[in-house]
Recover the amino acids of this structure.
């Protein structure tokens, strides 16, 4: 794995796989998981990371730090710099990434909890990840449940903890791929746009609650268009433009 320290003004460094088949164990005392466009991002205080080196510093040794780790569930785009030219290529996620994403997706209310944070470890191991994901050994035979349980226990352990160092998820301000900033998830983008629209539509008439869902918003726009057609049409077009941006 490769570690990139945080840039100026940033809290979290970045941890990436050095090669397509990479390994390493991340033990974190506190973390928070965020859904992304192609999987999840783990923001955490990493107490220990094995099989890791710092870009450009071979003598460097790991010390506890805030890091962010992309965990991909599907193919993603990777940018690499060759001289002065950036090259983009599509990358297939590794078995362990897909396996972790399946676990997270199966119980998102637990792993994406807003009230609680997470602690535990993730072990990135392409060999074990393949067996966990497929349930098949190298000879094509189903693995015994006891073996799968052993592999699971060695690959992932996560439980809830109380927030301390990490009070919330960082605001994602720029988009990017494997080689740069992380893409803001579709959910986060929509929630940001929704809040922006609701704030801009205020103030509301006395006793009128702000729209809480799309049905409320549609009724609100309908009333405006009915009472003030010209103004209502302008507001409706602005709302559409915001959500389509």
């Amino acid at each position: 794995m490769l570690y990139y320290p945080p840039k100026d003004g940033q809290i979290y460094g970045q941890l990436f796989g050095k090669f397509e088949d990479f390994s390493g164990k991340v033990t974190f005392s506190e973390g928070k998981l965020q859904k992304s466009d192609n999987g999840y991002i783990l923001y955490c205080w990493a107490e220990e990371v094995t099989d890791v080196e710092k870009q450009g510093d071979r003598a460097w040794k790991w010390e506890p730090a805030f890091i962010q780790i992309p965990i991909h569930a599907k193919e993603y785009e990777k940018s690499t710099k060759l001289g002065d030219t950036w090259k983009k290529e599509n990358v297939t996620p590794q078995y362990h990434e897909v396996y972790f994403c399946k676990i997270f997706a199966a119980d998102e209310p637990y792993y994406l909890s807003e009230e609680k944070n997470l602690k535990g470890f993730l072990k990135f191991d392409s060999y074990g990840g393949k067996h966990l994901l497929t349930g098949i050994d190298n000879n094509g035979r189903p693995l015994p449940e006891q073996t799968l349980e052993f592999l699971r226990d060695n690959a992932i352990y996560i439980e809830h903890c109380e927030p301390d160092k990490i009070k919330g998820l960082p605001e994602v301000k720029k988009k990017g791929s494997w080689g740069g900033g992380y893409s803001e998830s579709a959910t986060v983008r929509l929630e940001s746009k929704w809040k922006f629209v609701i704030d801009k539509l205020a103030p509301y008439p006395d006793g009128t609650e702000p729209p809480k869902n799309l049905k409320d918003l549609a009724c609100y726009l309908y009333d405006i268009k009915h009472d003030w057609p010209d103004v209502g049409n302008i507001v409706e077009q602005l709302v559409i433009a915001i959500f389509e941006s």
Notes: Helices lie at 95-106, 108-111, 126-134, 145-155, 186-201, 214-227, 229-244. Residues 2-166+176-183 form one domain. The mean pLDDT is 82.
